[in-house]
Design brief:
The structure holds two protein chains of two kinds. Chain A is of the alpha/beta class. Chain A has three helices and eight strands, in the order βαβαββαββββ. In chain A, 44% of the residues are buried. The chains are: A alpha/beta, B alpha/beta.
Chain lengths: 218, 314
């Protein structure tokens, strides 16, 4: 939900607890990279593509690709797919800004695609990303890697690679910070303050929403 | 955004937002075999055209279809309009049939504003939401044309802000010129108009632009030049002595085009009168972005429909 990623507004929220420090984030990415190498060992060279789900899935995919190259030798292709146009909740909020869709050279056809996102919750974003992906080509298989799985699934979707399982209640927020989009690497957990009605990251004007904080309910 | 009636309703952030959405939609469809997005499934988009059109009507229709909206075209000829039905009654009829968006072109300036006002009254009375998009009203405005021109300039020049753009020809009758002057100024460009004195509107000195006396003097300093069509259908008097004289004074000949800087872009909203306002060789030269404008037109109109129809009604 959008509320999971609401920006820091001093004083409005109770203090956040740090689930993963910057060093933990780096270690976790390295571990997922090792698992990807292990699990995709049977795939032909250059047959693995890492596709980030914007906003924060995209830098995560890039870091994972760099780690896979460091530990395994071959660097997988990296791209991104914006699921916004495929979401099932578009009409519940004002129109949101779109994010980058970058199909790597060679496309997805017959590749092993690993979708990468920061937080997995309802599974609806992943569902939309799967639909977007299938409009761009026909991967041989699709896997899912997430930094944090916080539960509360609303669809039959499961991640193949999980950085950290975090049992949460619905009124808690998980916030992933990455240096590419934020000021540092960290994963924060906090109990959310009751949000004022109508508050939404997307403003009324087409450009009213910030580009770094769209509500992806992952 | 409820309606899109005038570029003056858009501030720089809103206009840039629409252009960014357009770029992303183009990116999302790039190289795909299936050019279809599910975003506007179940939405009905009706084009209501009281004037002839090829590119505007077709590109709105294509834009709607690529986003899975149901699109229906109504033209004045062949509809109850020719039996004498008023714009208000036709508009409310289309709303009652479930139109989520009516895209209107009309020979009277202000027609889209009137239709939007009636649509808002109807919403208060019956709860139907019908967005109105101005696809050209008389000599007033043509917002999506200005947006697609800005998108094309951004593609070719990297940015609009700080660029000098000339608009040449029949400014008086041109809704394209009016929308472009205001939108390009909002986006931070410097706009220069060059036109026969008889084809400049009254009050042009209050527009956010400069009027240049002579085309040849302006060309070497321009980043882009937009040639306007001479609108014979709106001219009920003699505004210039002859077509030949117009072409000599204000047409973009090959010799004139050579005065432009290397990087300059030549735009034309179409339909072109080759040999009148633009020489065929110039229209087909690599500096001309006329077909790029048409391509961007589809994505810009998709962006407009996305911002009007995809989110929750306001």
């Amino acid at each position: 939900m959008a509320d999971d990623r609401r920006g820091d507004e001093a004083g409005k929220h109770p203090p956040a607890r740090e689930l993963l420090s910057a060093a933990d984030v780096t270690r976790t990415i390295a571990r997922i990279a090792h698992q990807i190498i292990e699990k995709t060992a049977g795939s032909p060279e250059a047959g693995v593509v890492l596709i980030g789900i914007p906003t924060r899935g995209t830098p995560l995919a890039r870091r994972l690709a760099a780690a896979v190259a460091e530990f395994g030798g071959t660097a997988p292709a990296v791209g991104s797919v914006d699921p916004t146009l495929y979401r099932d909740d578009l009409r519940r909020r004002p129109a949101r800004p779109l994010e980058d869709t970058v199909v790597p050279e060679g496309g997805f056809d017959d590749k092993l695609v690993v979708l990468v996102d920061d937080v997995l919750m309802s599974g609806r974003t992943v569902r939309a990303a799967l639909d977007a992906l299938s409009d761009h080509g026909r991967p041989r298989a699709v896997q899912l890697a997430v930094l944090v799985d916080r539960g509360h699934r609303e669809l039959p979707i499961r991640a193949d690679y999980v950085g950290k399982n975090v049992p949460t209640s619905r009124d808690e927020q998980i916030r992933v910070l990455l240096t590419e989009t934020d000021d540092r690497d960290a994963v924060l957990l906090r109990r959310s303050a009751p949000s004022p009605a109508g508050e939404s990251p997307a403003g009324e004007s087409p450009a009213g929403a910030s580009s770094t904080g769209p509500g992806e309910d992952a | 955004m409820k309606h899109l009636l005038s570029v003056t309703d858009l501030d720089a952030a809103a206009a840039t937002g629409l252009l960014d959405t357009s770029d992303r939609l183009k990116q999302a469809l790039l190289g795909r075999e299936v050019r279809k997005l599910p975003t506007l499934r179940g939405r009905t988009v009706i084009t209501l055209f009281y004037e002839d059109s090829t590119r505007t009507r077709v590109s709105f229709e294509v834009a709607g279809k690529w986003m899975s909206a149901d699109t229906v075209n109504v033209s004045a000829k062949g509809s109850s309009v020719s039996k004498g039905e008023s714009l208000r009654d036709t508009g409310l009829t289309l709303s009652a049939m479930g139109a989520d968006c009516v895209i209107v072109r009309h020979p009277a300036s202000g027609a889209a504003h009137r239709l939007a006002a009636w649509s808002d009254q109807d919403r208060d009375a019956t709860g139907t939401h019908t967005s109105v998009v101005n696809a050209g009203d008389g000599t007033h405005e043509h917002p999506t044309q200005a947006l697609l021109d800005a998108a094309t300039l951004r593609d070719r020049l990297g940015s609009v802000a700080g660029r000098r753009i000339g608009i040449v020809g029949d400014v008086l009758h041109s809704r394209v010129a009016r929308s472009n002057v205001f939108l390009l100024a909002t986006l931070g460009a410097e706009v220069v108009l060059v036109a026969p004195p008889t084809l400049l509107p009254v009050g042009v000195e209050q527009w956010p632009c400069r009027v240049g006396p002579e085309l040849d003097a302006e060309l070497p300093t321009l980043d882009a030049v937009m040639m306007l069509r001479v609108q014979a259908e709106r001219m009920h008097g003699s505004f210039f002595p002859s077509a030949r004289e117009y072409a000599v004074g204000y047409g973009l000949s090959q010799e004139r085009a050579a005065l432009l800087p290397e990087h300059a872009v030549v735009l034309h909203p179409g339909p072109m009168m080759r040999g009148m306002e633009i020489a065929p060789a110039v229209a087909d030269s690599p500096g001309a972005a006329i077909l790029a404008q048409v391509r961007n037109g589809v994505h810009v109109r998709m962006a407009v429909l996305y911002h009007l129809l995809a989110g929750a009604p306001e």
